[in-house]
User: What shape does this take?
Amino acid sequence: MIRLKDLNVRDPFVYSENGTYYLYAASKDGDGFVCYKSSDMRTFLDPVTVFKAGDGFWATKDFWAPELHAYNGKYYLFASLKSDKSPRGTQIFVSDRPDGEFTPLTDAPVTPQGWECLDGTLYVENGVPYIVFCREWLEITDGEMYIMQLTPDLKRAAGEPIKLFSASSAPWTRPLTGNSYITDGPFILKGEDGYKMLWSSFAESGYAMGLCESKSLFGPWTHAEKPINKNNGGHGMVLCDGGKNYLVYHAPNEPAGLERVQMDEFEY
Assistant: This one.
């Protein structure tokens, strides 16, 4: 068994169903994704592989940030991948079970071809699926956040990507280097008065998470003045469990190897 505080995982994502918690992460071998299962979110079984890249799969490196979404009777894993021949993008995988085995839904990422994209997340509004994702600072310097409608089967875009904001538009963000600003890890929350988005970038205290809010999924989005944490951690999601909300993320962000899963009660 592995204790929560001992989980050396970046970009953790937790899905809960029928009393079982599933925590998804990149595999230590760097060629796929794993799932840790728990009955109490305090101790976890050893990870099981839910996807491992084989010969012929388009991506060869940077297997990052898997997250699980139940949709229309199936389970979909959204993750960021890359190869030397193809830019980074969000690939969607599908399975009949939350603990796999997952197979690629399509033979290419669902994010725009030719763009450097990462951290796609699913949000369904009135039965219509959307992907919210980041366009990388490595391509455009000032990272951007987008939303794009998907077809009902999640296999392709059903509309053009709509820009929501740039990383530098938040008052709390600071450049990583020079004038390069990062957008990472969006997660949409629905409230009584509209929407909130949890996302990550760099602040004066290091890697951090911020909140922004909007009356519409398509903006305009108004950013909080300060990040919600100062412990050099981020790429978070919110787990709703037992009438409470928990912020799940990793910290510290560096040095590599010291990252641990954090889970804090959270109000938004």
